[in-house]
Every structure is written in C-alpha cells, then in structure tokens.
Fold these 2 entries.
Entry 1:
Amino acid sequence: MTPSEWRDKLFQIKDAFLKDIGGVSPENLDALEIRYLGRKGELSILLRELKDFPIEERKSLGQDGNSIKTEMESLLAGKKSSLSPIKTQAASGGKTGIDVTLPGYPFLKGSIHPISFTVNKLAEVFMRLGFTIADGPHIEDDYHNFEALNIPQCHPSRDAQDTFYLAMKDSQANNLLLRTHTSPVQIRTMMKHKPPLRIISPGRVFRRDALDASHSFVFHQIEGFYVDRNVGMADLKWTMEAFIKELFGSDTRLRFRPSYFPFVEPGAEVDMTCVFCRGRGNRSAAVPNEKCPVCKGSGWLEMLGAGVIHPNVLKACSMDPVQWSGFAFGAGIERFAMLLFEIRDMRIFYENDLRILKQL
C-alpha cells in the first residue's frame, strides 16, 4: 500500500463512521465503537500498518491518523452523552427516576502503576527515535537465552543458583528456563527479520536474586538494539544521550566506562549525573560535607550496559558481521522508575501501598 492509498483508506473510514454515527441507536452504539475504534476495528488495523512505511512518511501519516482518531473519539463521546438518558430510560421500561443499579458517588477511578507508567514513558521516547516494540516469551530455551548471545558454558549466569530452570520429566525440555534478560528477543527478531532493525523490548525477567532495596527475583528490563550498515559506538552514544536527556533534562551529563559483556565488543557501562544531587556529590549545596546517599558522593549513577553487538551474535543469527553491524543496550526499568518518582527502595512497587499506586 502506498502512502496515498493509505490516506485514501483513512478518509474512507472517517466518512463511513460519520454516516453510521448520524443514525445510530443507543443499542448499537457499543457495536459502532468496536467496529471502528476497537482493538480489531477498521481504524485500529489501519493505524497498525504505519510500521511498514519509512519513518519520514510514517510521521506525516501518523499525524493524520491520530487527528482523525481523536475526532472520531470526540464525536463518539458526545453521542454517548446525548443518548445515555434515552438508554437508561429504555432499560427501566420507560420509567424515569433514579437508577439504583448505578454505582454511588464518588466514583472510584483506576490508576496507572508506576512501573507501567515508566515502561510507557521509555517506549514513547524510543519510538520518537525511530524504534519499534517487539516482544518474546517468558519461558526460553538455553540457546536463545545464552548460547546465541555468546555466553560461554562456564559463565556463572548459567548456574542453577542464578537461573530458574524448569524441572520437567521430558528430557528434551530440561533446557527450558525463565528468561534472565530480555536479550533473547534480540536473537529472535534478528533471526526472523532482515536489517535494518531498530527494536526495543520491555518486559519481565527472572533471576535468583535475594530481595532487598535494589534487587528482586522478578523485575523488568528494557532491551534495545539497532542493526544496519556501519553502525558503531558513535551511534550508540548519540542514542543514549538523546534518550537520557529527554527523560531527565538537557543538563544531564553522561559518561561511558569500558566494561565486559559477552554479547558486545566493545562494551560499556553508561552513567549519568545523579538526579538527586545534580552531580555535586553532596546532599545539598547548604551542607557540602554530607554525601548524597543515592550516589554515595560520586555524583554519578550507573544506568545501563551497552556496546557494539559481538560478531558471534550476528553469526548466530545468520548475519554477515562484515556486512552488518549494530549496537545493543539493556537497563532495569525499576531503576528508571525509582529515579523518576524519587523512590529509594524498589520493594515499594510491589507492596500494594495505595499512596504509591494511586499517584498517577
């Protein structure tokens, strides 16, 4: 489908919606919403096809699509408001008065969990940088979780004391495990699709960690990678700077420290200036001798690991490392949530404290 054909289809859907909503009855209002705006509705399916267009055309088409979607949602809300007295009266057999089946006031509202808010925030920033979202299974096999990522057999992360292996009677399934990171999504995506690829994958991961203020046996990670021709550390550095500064402000500084990860070469730890002391290292300017308790006086916070994708990883995905290159990064989502909400103990996210959960 060409951009002009996509836009023509968009306006055809709009015209059909305007025609249908004009004469819709109260009983058919929900069906009308599902037909056009539901998860499998005509407009929703068309908007999902945007991912097949180049990023330059996707931006223009996406603006038109979102504008029409907003207009349709507004018209639908107005129609619901005008028809609701008719629908209530019809349900009560034509009698007017108080509907005792309706909930009492005040109406309880749902809220967004801080982790969900953080995932959405991170995804929004990366999508503006041209990344798309991919997902993968929680139950993985040894090949996708370790072998294809160039993690050697002797690596401690393969030990049962660090990884949740699934105990099954079938000997062929003994290598199944709960994924220890979201990096297997990188392997599955590169095996299935050809470059260029620009993907992020947020999701839940599992490790045999002791529960404390900064560790948990179930937590969330975000994996990202970019594979194309002539991709290197300069591309990684620009992406990380754009991402971090969008989240924490343009005055935030980054530094890259050499580090080792089996699946990248070279690898780096990415630090940013502490959001609590703004890089000073002390609790406040008024008390210069008291160290910041978050960064321990260093002025820096370790945020994520990253690097250039190892040639062995590309070979495991049937890609020629001479022709293709890329970078990858991974970070804990709880760490970003703790900084965004100024929380110092990640266990708070899972204790069902409504003072925390209802702040959004």
Entry 2:
Amino acid sequence: MKSIKKLALGVAVAGLAATGALAENVKIAFIDPLSGPFAATGTNGLHQYEFAAEKLVNEKGGVLGGTNFEIVPFDNKISPKESLIQLQVAIDQGIRYIVQGNSSGVANALTDAIKKHNERNPDSRVLFLNYSAVDPALTNEKCNFWHFRFDANADIKMDALTDVIAQNPDIKKMYIIGQDYSFGKAVASAAVSMLGAKRPDIEIVGNELHPIGKVKDFTPYARKITASGADAVITGNWGSDMLGLGKAIIDNGFEGPIYTYYAAADGITAAFGEAGVGTLKLVAEGGDAPPEKPEAQEYQKAFKAKYPDGNISQSRITNVIQMLAMAIDEAGTATDVVAVANALEGMTFNDSLWSNNPMTMRASDHQLIQDVHIYAHTQVEAPFDMDNSGFGLKYENSIAAAGEALPTSCEMERP
C-alpha cells in the first residue's frame, strides 16, 4: 500500500514537472543600494517594486496564465564593482530580468557587462530594465538591444526645466552644482547648452562638481552659491547629497528657486518641510500630484497602509512592472528574452496608473517617451504627502511626450 502511495505521488510530481512551468515565478533582480548613505532610496524603491509586482501582476492572475512575478533584492552598496558581482550572482540563480536605477555609474557598468554576457552566453541572456539611471549616453552612444530606460533621461528633463526657466525674467544668474560622476556631468553639460540656446542672457556664475556620497558638510558650497549672486540653482543631486546640499543652501539665506531632479521623499521632503516651500522645484515623469485618477489614489493608499514610512516616489516603477508583464504575455514566454525585448520595442502603453496619456518605448534607442512635469514642494494632505510630513509635491507645468523631438545617436544592433 505504501508503495502504491509513493508511486501515485511520483506520478503527480512528474505531472507537475511536465505541465508546471507556470508555477515557476518570473524572478526580477533588484540591484540597488540597501545599505550605506543611499540605503533609504534603495529600500523604498525595493518596496515599490514588491508592491507593484503583487498588486499589478500577481493579484490579477500573473503572466502567461498564472505565473507570478518575484522581486529578488541584491545590495550593490552603490558600487559599480559590487553591482557586477551581484549581477553574476543573479545570473547564476537563473534570473533573466535586472532592474536598477540609482547611479548612472552603476548603470553604465551593468549595461556593458550584460551586453558582453549576452553575446557570450546566448542560452542565459538577460534584460536590463533601467528605471532611474538617466545618463543620456545609455540611450545614445552606449545604447544596446538589452537595455531599456523607463525614466526620462537627463537631457529630456533638462529640456523641460530650461523651458520653464526661460520663461522667468527674474533669473539672470544661474549656479550649477552636482555629483562628480557621469550623471552629474551630463546634467551640467545639458544645463549650459540648453540655457545658452534658450536664454543666452543668463550668466552661469558657478559650475562645479563634488564627490558623490562623501561630503558631510555642504556649507562651503552653499556660501559660494550665495556669494555668487545667483538667482537660481540647478542640481541633479539625489539621496543624502540632495538633502545636504539643499539644506545648506537654504540655511545660508538663499531664497531663489532650486531646480532639482530628485528633491523628494526618502526623508528629503520631511527634512525640508516649510523651508522648501517656494524654493524647491523638481522635474520628473509621472502625472498629477497629488494623483487625480481614482485607481492611483487607491493604489497609493494601499501602499501607505502596508509601508507606513514609505513613499510612492517613482511612478515609473509601476510602468516597468506593467510593461514587462505585457511584453511577456505578448511574447508568450518569459524565458526567451529576445522575444520579450522585441515585444517591448515600440510598445505603446496606455494603462499607466498615473497618466491618461500614452507612453511609447522608442524602438530606435529603447528610451521611453512620456510626459514630463515640473513640480513644487508644498503642503499636501495625507496620505498623498511624503515622509508623513504634511508636505509633498504639487503639479505646476507639463511637457507632453517630452524628448520625442530630441535626436539620438544610438545605432541599435539587434541579435
């Protein structure tokens, strides 16, 4: 009798093995900082990915008729070298989808490594879904078939920012400051070029870079900004560097606008509080802030219920999850990443939680074309504030399909 039961169990297991491919989760490696000075940014991003996978895919039946998404975290300590180690660990675990966003230096290392790996290992290829690293080179001279960017790149965002700045006659002098790596340099270069084209009368009274993640006291930088007579500041700083720089500038008496890329959430909003009102501006993809779509409101409320100290600070994360799910279903496979990439190329996405306007993954360079907005730091009622602070973002300006007309130097090579 025991033998019969064992035989029956063996048959059942064999049957599951033969037909149970759907039971295998689609694993997505999250490679970002979960320790060190940028841990708050990485941890909040991880929670947003986990929540999006559960709510937008798994609870709706998964992909391919029943397969769930699973987010697997890897701490890269914001180090390109450590990121490459974690990438190999993820590949060795059979993971075929990599998401990363914090630091373009890391993204540049990953995209090179993934390209080389895929050329050498056609049976274990992976896709790089870049949700926040915005160095323009990644979709220009360094573009490749395996990399897709879901955020607007630094040039696209600067194009939007400088459109707004150009309309402000009170700005005569501009100070540019950022982190000393590829993204900070890209922001500075775009600011100089685009201000020169749109407002050649604006004088650049400062243009400097500082070490990333190492400055403990930004007071000397703030004093130089104040002494320069600048009417406004542009910075691409993020994480603790954004907080330290911004607080020092305001504490030293600067009252003009500070145009930023990442001055929100992860403790930044709470730290600025009332001091940031009327000063901090932010350029980002997304939609209305606070959100107007009922489904977006419910999603944000549910996230806050699960992560009371967290923030929905990167709407692009939900776009990554939803568009990947669509591509897998269209391709009919999660393991053939070439087929999934072909489905992502040129995809028009109409179902974003945050926007009523379509987004398109441009096939020529794998840059998502979407609306970009300018927001202001202001008082916001819960649960749509950030850091449970009573402050958040308010929509001010919008550029539809931002970057659509900007050229790309990408020469895409497809397998």
